[in-house]
Design brief:
Layout (H helix, E strand, L loop, with lengths): L10 E5 L4 H12 L3 E6 L8 H4 L6 E6 L5 H11 L3 E4 L6 H6 L1 H21 L5 E5 L25 H23 L4 E7 L1 E3 L9 H10 L3 E4 L5 E6 H16 L8 E4 L6 E3 H11 L4 E4 L15 H7 L7 H17 L4 H13 L2
Helix pairs in contact: 1-8, 3-5, 5-6, 9-11, 11-12
The structure holds nicotinamide-adenine-dinucleotide (NAD).
Length: 352
Protein backbone atom coordinates (compact mmCIF):
# COMPACT_ATOMS: atom_id res chain seq x y z
CA UNK A 1 0.00 0.00 0.00
CA UNK A 2 1.18 3.53 -0.75
CA UNK A 3 2.03 5.79 2.16
CA UNK A 4 0.11 8.57 0.36
CA UNK A 5 2.78 11.01 1.52
CA UNK A 6 2.14 13.25 -1.51
CA UNK A 7 -1.30 14.08 -0.13
CA UNK A 8 0.23 15.87 2.88
CA UNK A 9 -0.49 19.59 2.79
CA UNK A 10 -2.84 19.28 -0.21
CA UNK A 11 -6.26 21.00 -0.09
CA UNK A 12 -8.86 18.30 -0.73
CA UNK A 13 -12.61 18.85 -0.85
CA UNK A 14 -14.68 15.88 0.29
CA UNK A 15 -18.34 16.15 -0.66
CA UNK A 16 -20.59 14.00 1.53
CA UNK A 17 -18.09 14.36 4.38
CA UNK A 18 -20.84 14.09 7.02
CA UNK A 19 -21.79 10.60 5.83
CA UNK A 20 -20.46 7.13 6.56
CA UNK A 21 -17.69 6.88 3.92
CA UNK A 22 -17.02 10.63 4.06
CA UNK A 23 -16.27 10.63 7.79
CA UNK A 24 -13.82 7.72 7.48
CA UNK A 25 -12.17 9.45 4.49
CA UNK A 26 -11.79 12.74 6.39
CA UNK A 27 -10.07 10.98 9.31
CA UNK A 28 -7.69 9.08 7.05
CA UNK A 29 -6.84 12.17 4.95
CA UNK A 30 -6.24 14.23 8.08
CA UNK A 31 -3.94 11.51 9.40
CA UNK A 32 -1.91 11.93 6.19
CA UNK A 33 -1.61 15.68 6.74
CA UNK A 34 -4.04 16.76 4.00
CA UNK A 35 -6.08 19.95 4.48
CA UNK A 36 -9.59 18.54 4.35
CA UNK A 37 -12.60 20.65 3.35
CA UNK A 38 -16.14 19.31 3.57
CA UNK A 39 -19.37 20.07 1.70
CA UNK A 40 -22.53 18.14 2.59
CA UNK A 41 -25.92 18.26 4.25
CA UNK A 42 -26.13 17.89 8.03
CA UNK A 43 -25.79 14.29 9.25
CA UNK A 44 -29.08 12.54 8.61
CA UNK A 45 -29.19 9.96 11.39
CA UNK A 46 -28.80 10.10 15.12
CA UNK A 47 -26.36 8.73 16.14
CA UNK A 48 -23.99 9.29 13.22
CA UNK A 49 -20.28 8.68 12.68
CA UNK A 50 -19.50 12.32 11.87
CA UNK A 51 -20.54 13.50 15.34
CA UNK A 52 -19.49 10.50 17.39
CA UNK A 53 -15.94 10.52 16.02
CA UNK A 54 -15.57 14.31 16.20
CA UNK A 55 -14.83 14.51 12.48
CA UNK A 56 -15.53 18.24 12.47
CA UNK A 57 -12.27 18.73 14.39
CA UNK A 58 -10.12 17.38 11.56
CA UNK A 59 -11.57 19.72 8.94
CA UNK A 60 -9.92 22.84 7.56
CA UNK A 61 -13.41 24.00 6.56
CA UNK A 62 -16.91 22.60 6.98
CA UNK A 63 -19.69 23.76 4.65
CA UNK A 64 -23.23 22.59 5.20
CA UNK A 65 -24.87 23.07 1.82
CA UNK A 66 -26.86 21.38 -0.91
CA UNK A 67 -25.07 20.27 -4.08
CA UNK A 68 -28.35 20.74 -5.95
CA UNK A 69 -27.67 24.48 -5.70
CA UNK A 70 -24.96 25.49 -8.15
CA UNK A 71 -24.12 28.74 -6.35
CA UNK A 72 -23.42 26.83 -3.13
CA UNK A 73 -21.05 24.44 -4.89
CA UNK A 74 -19.34 27.15 -6.92
CA UNK A 75 -18.86 29.37 -3.86
CA UNK A 76 -17.40 26.52 -1.83
CA UNK A 77 -14.91 25.55 -4.56
CA UNK A 78 -13.98 29.19 -5.22
CA UNK A 79 -13.45 29.94 -1.55
CA UNK A 80 -11.44 26.89 -0.50
CA UNK A 81 -9.52 26.33 -3.76
CA UNK A 82 -9.14 22.54 -3.48
CA UNK A 83 -6.57 20.89 -5.69
CA UNK A 84 -8.40 17.58 -5.50
CA UNK A 85 -12.05 16.65 -4.97
CA UNK A 86 -13.44 13.39 -3.61
CA UNK A 87 -17.11 13.44 -4.64
CA UNK A 88 -19.10 11.16 -2.34
CA UNK A 89 -22.25 13.24 -1.78
CA UNK A 90 -25.26 11.34 -3.05
CA UNK A 91 -28.62 9.86 -2.25
CA UNK A 92 -27.12 6.35 -1.92
CA UNK A 93 -30.08 4.11 -1.03
CA UNK A 94 -32.00 1.97 -3.51
CA UNK A 95 -35.25 1.86 -1.48
CA UNK A 96 -35.16 5.63 -0.92
CA UNK A 97 -34.71 6.07 -4.68
CA UNK A 98 -38.06 4.33 -5.26
CA UNK A 99 -39.67 6.67 -2.72
CA UNK A 100 -38.02 9.80 -4.11
CA UNK A 101 -36.81 9.33 -7.69
CA UNK A 102 -36.85 13.07 -8.42
CA UNK A 103 -34.66 13.90 -5.41
CA UNK A 104 -32.35 10.98 -6.23
CA UNK A 105 -31.81 12.08 -9.84
CA UNK A 106 -31.41 15.72 -8.75
CA UNK A 107 -28.66 14.95 -6.26
CA UNK A 108 -26.89 12.15 -8.06
CA UNK A 109 -26.98 13.57 -11.58
CA UNK A 110 -27.49 17.34 -11.35
CA UNK A 111 -25.40 17.57 -8.18
CA UNK A 112 -22.55 15.86 -10.04
CA UNK A 113 -22.95 18.30 -12.95
CA UNK A 114 -22.70 21.20 -10.49
CA UNK A 115 -19.54 19.84 -8.97
CA UNK A 116 -17.85 19.13 -12.30
CA UNK A 117 -18.79 22.57 -13.57
CA UNK A 118 -17.52 24.33 -10.45
CA UNK A 119 -14.27 22.36 -10.77
CA UNK A 120 -13.94 23.19 -14.47
CA UNK A 121 -14.34 26.88 -13.73
CA UNK A 122 -11.74 26.80 -10.96
CA UNK A 123 -8.13 26.92 -12.09
CA UNK A 124 -7.02 25.27 -8.83
CA UNK A 125 -8.68 21.90 -9.28
CA UNK A 126 -6.49 19.32 -11.00
CA UNK A 127 -8.41 16.16 -10.22
CA UNK A 128 -11.85 14.90 -9.23
CA UNK A 129 -12.74 11.40 -8.15
CA UNK A 130 -16.47 10.67 -8.43
CA UNK A 131 -17.77 7.70 -6.47
CA UNK A 132 -20.46 5.75 -8.24
CA UNK A 133 -21.23 2.05 -7.61
CA UNK A 134 -21.11 -1.49 -9.01
CA UNK A 135 -24.82 -0.99 -9.74
CA UNK A 136 -23.98 1.22 -12.76
CA UNK A 137 -23.59 -1.91 -14.88
CA UNK A 138 -26.53 -3.25 -16.83
CA UNK A 139 -27.12 -6.52 -14.99
CA UNK A 140 -27.02 -9.13 -17.74
CA UNK A 141 -27.53 -12.06 -15.37
CA UNK A 142 -24.32 -13.68 -16.42
CA UNK A 143 -21.74 -15.19 -14.12
CA UNK A 144 -18.74 -13.29 -15.49
CA UNK A 145 -17.30 -10.41 -13.52
CA UNK A 146 -18.07 -7.01 -15.02
CA UNK A 147 -15.26 -4.95 -16.50
CA UNK A 148 -15.00 -1.18 -16.69
CA UNK A 149 -15.97 -1.11 -20.37
CA UNK A 150 -19.13 -3.22 -19.97
CA UNK A 151 -22.45 -1.59 -20.81
CA UNK A 152 -24.01 0.73 -18.21
CA UNK A 153 -27.65 0.43 -17.13
CA UNK A 154 -29.73 0.41 -13.98
CA UNK A 155 -33.16 -1.04 -13.25
CA UNK A 156 -33.95 1.12 -10.19
CA UNK A 157 -33.73 4.92 -9.90
CA UNK A 158 -30.58 4.82 -7.73
CA UNK A 159 -28.64 2.61 -10.17
CA UNK A 160 -29.87 4.57 -13.19
CA UNK A 161 -28.98 7.89 -11.54
CA UNK A 162 -25.43 6.71 -10.93
CA UNK A 163 -25.15 5.34 -14.48
CA UNK A 164 -26.44 8.69 -15.75
CA UNK A 165 -23.85 10.48 -13.61
CA UNK A 166 -21.20 8.33 -15.29
CA UNK A 167 -22.37 9.55 -18.71
CA UNK A 168 -22.11 13.13 -17.49
CA UNK A 169 -18.61 12.41 -16.16
CA UNK A 170 -17.51 10.81 -19.44
CA UNK A 171 -18.85 13.79 -21.36
CA UNK A 172 -17.02 16.29 -19.13
CA UNK A 173 -13.84 14.25 -19.57
CA UNK A 174 -14.22 14.19 -23.35
CA UNK A 175 -15.03 17.91 -23.50
CA UNK A 176 -11.96 19.08 -21.57
CA UNK A 177 -9.90 19.77 -24.72
CA UNK A 178 -12.74 21.89 -26.16
CA UNK A 179 -12.59 24.00 -23.01
CA UNK A 180 -8.78 24.10 -23.10
CA UNK A 181 -8.82 22.61 -19.60
CA UNK A 182 -6.54 19.89 -18.23
CA UNK A 183 -7.95 17.95 -15.34
CA UNK A 184 -8.38 14.28 -14.35
CA UNK A 185 -11.92 13.00 -13.78
CA UNK A 186 -11.89 9.43 -12.50
CA UNK A 187 -14.78 7.41 -11.20
CA UNK A 188 -14.69 4.50 -8.78
CA UNK A 189 -17.20 1.65 -8.64
CA UNK A 190 -17.42 -0.50 -5.51
CA UNK A 191 -19.84 -2.96 -3.94
CA UNK A 192 -21.63 -3.20 -0.59
CA UNK A 193 -19.54 -1.05 1.72
CA UNK A 194 -19.59 -1.97 5.38
CA UNK A 195 -17.75 -0.94 8.53
CA UNK A 196 -18.45 0.82 11.81
CA UNK A 197 -20.53 3.97 11.94
CA UNK A 198 -23.23 3.40 9.34
CA UNK A 199 -26.76 3.93 10.66
CA UNK A 200 -28.53 4.30 7.29
CA UNK A 201 -31.95 2.74 6.79
CA UNK A 202 -32.41 -0.53 4.95
CA UNK A 203 -28.81 -1.64 4.93
CA UNK A 204 -27.93 -4.99 6.48
CA UNK A 205 -25.31 -3.95 9.04
CA UNK A 206 -27.14 -0.87 10.39
CA UNK A 207 -30.39 -2.87 10.54
CA UNK A 208 -28.57 -5.61 12.47
CA UNK A 209 -27.01 -3.04 14.81
CA UNK A 210 -30.34 -1.31 15.53
CA UNK A 211 -32.10 -4.62 16.15
CA UNK A 212 -29.45 -6.00 18.51
CA UNK A 213 -29.03 -2.69 20.36
CA UNK A 214 -32.79 -2.45 20.94
CA UNK A 215 -33.41 -6.18 21.47
CA UNK A 216 -35.80 -6.01 18.52
CA UNK A 217 -36.43 -8.44 15.69
CA UNK A 218 -34.47 -8.05 12.47
CA UNK A 219 -36.49 -8.56 9.30
CA UNK A 220 -34.49 -10.15 6.50
CA UNK A 221 -35.96 -10.06 3.02
CA UNK A 222 -33.65 -12.35 1.15
CA UNK A 223 -31.19 -14.40 3.25
CA UNK A 224 -29.70 -16.19 0.26
CA UNK A 225 -28.95 -12.97 -1.68
CA UNK A 226 -25.21 -12.91 -2.33
CA UNK A 227 -23.52 -9.50 -2.15
CA UNK A 228 -19.97 -8.20 -2.63
CA UNK A 229 -19.12 -7.10 0.94
CA UNK A 230 -16.15 -4.75 1.46
CA UNK A 231 -14.77 -2.76 4.36
CA UNK A 232 -14.98 1.00 3.86
CA UNK A 233 -11.21 1.27 4.38
CA UNK A 234 -10.55 -1.05 1.39
CA UNK A 235 -12.44 1.41 -0.79
CA UNK A 236 -10.85 4.53 0.67
CA UNK A 237 -7.43 2.96 0.09
CA UNK A 238 -8.36 2.77 -3.60
CA UNK A 239 -9.72 6.33 -3.61
CA UNK A 240 -6.53 7.74 -2.05
CA UNK A 241 -4.41 5.83 -4.57
CA UNK A 242 -6.29 7.52 -7.41
CA UNK A 243 -6.15 10.97 -5.77
CA UNK A 244 -2.40 10.74 -5.20
CA UNK A 245 -1.90 9.59 -8.77
CA UNK A 246 -3.71 12.70 -10.00
CA UNK A 247 -1.03 14.83 -8.35
CA UNK A 248 1.70 13.07 -10.29
CA UNK A 249 -0.13 13.91 -13.54
CA UNK A 250 -0.08 10.20 -14.44
CA UNK A 251 -3.80 9.96 -14.89
CA UNK A 252 -4.54 11.93 -18.07
CA UNK A 253 -8.20 12.92 -18.46
CA UNK A 254 -9.30 10.06 -16.22
CA UNK A 255 -11.20 6.79 -16.46
CA UNK A 256 -13.44 4.38 -14.54
CA UNK A 257 -12.06 1.93 -11.96
CA UNK A 258 -13.63 -1.13 -10.34
CA UNK A 259 -12.75 -1.80 -6.71
CA UNK A 260 -14.37 -5.11 -5.83
CA UNK A 261 -13.81 -7.68 -3.07
CA UNK A 262 -12.24 -11.09 -3.64
CA UNK A 263 -14.77 -13.49 -5.05
CA UNK A 264 -14.68 -15.56 -1.82
CA UNK A 265 -16.00 -12.51 0.02
CA UNK A 266 -19.15 -12.39 -2.10
CA UNK A 267 -21.32 -14.40 0.29
CA UNK A 268 -25.02 -14.61 1.18
CA UNK A 269 -26.63 -12.28 3.71
CA UNK A 270 -27.12 -15.27 6.02
CA UNK A 271 -23.33 -15.89 6.27
CA UNK A 272 -22.74 -12.26 7.22
CA UNK A 273 -25.37 -12.53 9.95
CA UNK A 274 -23.76 -15.72 11.27
CA UNK A 275 -20.32 -14.04 11.33
CA UNK A 276 -21.72 -11.01 13.15
CA UNK A 277 -23.52 -13.21 15.66
CA UNK A 278 -20.20 -14.91 16.45
CA UNK A 279 -18.16 -11.67 16.50
CA UNK A 280 -20.72 -9.65 18.49
CA UNK A 281 -24.10 -11.08 19.38
CA UNK A 282 -26.94 -12.87 17.61
CA UNK A 283 -30.04 -11.01 16.40
CA UNK A 284 -33.61 -12.34 16.49
CA UNK A 285 -34.26 -12.81 12.80
CA UNK A 286 -37.63 -12.92 11.08
CA UNK A 287 -37.81 -13.64 7.39
CA UNK A 288 -39.95 -11.19 5.38
CA UNK A 289 -41.07 -11.05 1.75
CA UNK A 290 -38.60 -9.81 -0.87
CA UNK A 291 -39.70 -6.40 -2.15
CA UNK A 292 -39.23 -4.68 -5.48
CA UNK A 293 -36.37 -5.43 -7.76
CA UNK A 294 -33.50 -7.35 -6.13
CA UNK A 295 -30.66 -7.66 -8.60
CA UNK A 296 -28.84 -10.97 -8.74
CA UNK A 297 -25.18 -10.88 -7.77
CA UNK A 298 -23.03 -8.77 -9.97
CA UNK A 299 -19.30 -9.37 -9.51
CA UNK A 300 -16.70 -6.75 -10.33
CA UNK A 301 -13.51 -7.55 -12.19
CA UNK A 302 -10.89 -5.41 -10.45
CA UNK A 303 -7.93 -6.59 -12.51
CA UNK A 304 -7.24 -3.07 -13.79
CA UNK A 305 -6.96 -1.59 -10.29
CA UNK A 306 -4.86 -4.53 -9.12
CA UNK A 307 -2.44 -4.42 -12.04
CA UNK A 308 -2.22 -0.69 -12.71
CA UNK A 309 -2.54 0.68 -9.18
CA UNK A 310 -1.32 -2.29 -7.14
CA UNK A 311 -4.58 -2.04 -5.18
CA UNK A 312 -6.18 -5.03 -3.48
CA UNK A 313 -8.51 -5.41 -0.50
CA UNK A 314 -6.23 -5.87 2.54
CA UNK A 315 -9.02 -7.14 4.76
CA UNK A 316 -11.07 -10.18 3.80
CA UNK A 317 -14.61 -10.68 5.03
CA UNK A 318 -13.52 -12.17 8.38
CA UNK A 319 -11.37 -9.16 9.31
CA UNK A 320 -13.98 -6.78 7.90
CA UNK A 321 -16.72 -8.17 10.11
CA UNK A 322 -14.45 -8.41 13.16
CA UNK A 323 -13.53 -4.72 12.76
CA UNK A 324 -17.17 -3.78 12.20
CA UNK A 325 -18.33 -5.67 15.28
CA UNK A 326 -15.47 -4.16 17.32
CA UNK A 327 -16.54 -0.65 16.29
CA UNK A 328 -20.22 -1.01 17.20
CA UNK A 329 -19.49 -3.00 20.35
CA UNK A 330 -17.25 -0.21 21.52
CA UNK A 331 -19.86 2.42 20.60
CA UNK A 332 -22.60 0.73 22.62
CA UNK A 333 -20.27 0.09 25.60
CA UNK A 334 -18.54 3.48 25.78
CA UNK A 335 -19.17 6.14 23.12
CA UNK A 336 -16.14 8.13 24.15
CA UNK A 337 -13.84 5.32 22.96
CA UNK A 338 -15.12 5.17 19.42
CA UNK A 339 -13.11 8.06 17.97
CA UNK A 340 -9.91 6.32 19.02
CA UNK A 341 -11.13 2.95 17.68
CA UNK A 342 -11.74 4.65 14.33
CA UNK A 343 -8.18 5.97 14.19
CA UNK A 344 -6.76 2.65 15.43
CA UNK A 345 -8.60 0.78 12.67
CA UNK A 346 -7.28 3.20 10.04
CA UNK A 347 -3.72 2.66 11.31
CA UNK A 348 -4.23 -1.10 11.47
CA UNK A 349 -5.46 -1.10 7.89
CA UNK A 350 -2.49 1.02 6.80
CA UNK A 351 -0.15 -1.30 8.67
CA UNK A 352 1.42 1.50 10.73
N1 LIG B 1 -22.40 2.46 1.26
C1 LIG B 1 -22.39 1.66 0.20
O1 LIG B 1 -22.61 0.44 0.31
C2 LIG B 1 -22.05 2.20 -1.16
C3 LIG B 1 -21.82 1.30 -2.21
C4 LIG B 1 -21.45 1.80 -3.47
C5 LIG B 1 -21.35 3.17 -3.65
N2 LIG B 1 -21.60 4.03 -2.61
C6 LIG B 1 -21.47 5.46 -2.88
O2 LIG B 1 -20.56 6.02 -1.94
C7 LIG B 1 -20.94 7.35 -1.62
C8 LIG B 1 -21.03 7.52 -0.12
O3 LIG B 1 -22.00 6.63 0.39
P1 LIG B 1 -22.30 6.50 1.95
O4 LIG B 1 -22.74 5.12 2.17
O5 LIG B 1 -21.16 7.05 2.72
O6 LIG B 1 -23.57 7.47 2.08
P2 LIG B 1 -24.11 8.35 3.31
O7 LIG B 1 -25.59 8.41 3.14
O8 LIG B 1 -23.58 7.87 4.60
O9 LIG B 1 -23.51 9.78 3.01
C9 LIG B 1 -24.00 10.57 1.96
C10 LIG B 1 -23.42 11.96 2.10
O10 LIG B 1 -23.91 12.74 1.01
C11 LIG B 1 -24.44 13.95 1.52
N3 LIG B 1 -25.52 14.42 0.66
C12 LIG B 1 -26.63 13.75 0.28
N4 LIG B 1 -27.40 14.56 -0.47
C13 LIG B 1 -26.75 15.75 -0.58
C14 LIG B 1 -27.03 16.99 -1.20
N5 LIG B 1 -28.14 17.15 -1.94
N6 LIG B 1 -26.15 18.00 -1.06
C15 LIG B 1 -25.01 17.84 -0.33
N7 LIG B 1 -24.69 16.70 0.28
C16 LIG B 1 -25.55 15.66 0.17
C17 LIG B 1 -24.95 13.60 2.91
O11 LIG B 1 -25.08 14.79 3.68
C18 LIG B 1 -23.83 12.68 3.38
O12 LIG B 1 -22.76 13.47 3.86
C19 LIG B 1 -22.25 7.62 -2.36
O13 LIG B 1 -21.95 8.29 -3.56
C20 LIG B 1 -22.77 6.23 -2.65
O14 LIG B 1 -23.62 6.20 -3.76
C21 LIG B 1 -21.94 3.57 -1.37
Amino acid sequence: MGSFSKLAGVDILVTGHTGFTGSWACHWLHRLGARVHGLALKPKTSPNIFDVTGAIDVLASHTIGNINDFTTVRTCVKKHKPKLILHLAAQPLVLESYADPVGTYMTNVQGTVHLLEAARLSEHVSGILCITTDKVYENRSWIHPYRENDRLGGADPYSASKAAAELVIASYRASLPSWGRQMTIDCARGGNIIGGGDWSDNRLIPDFVRATANDAALEIRNPSATRPWQHVLCLIDGYLTLLERMLAAESGPGQAWNFGPDIDDCVPVKSVLDHLAAAWKPAQIVYGKAVQHEAQLLVLDSTKARQTLGWRPRWGLGQTLQATAEWYRSFYQDRSAVAQITLDQIDRYRGV
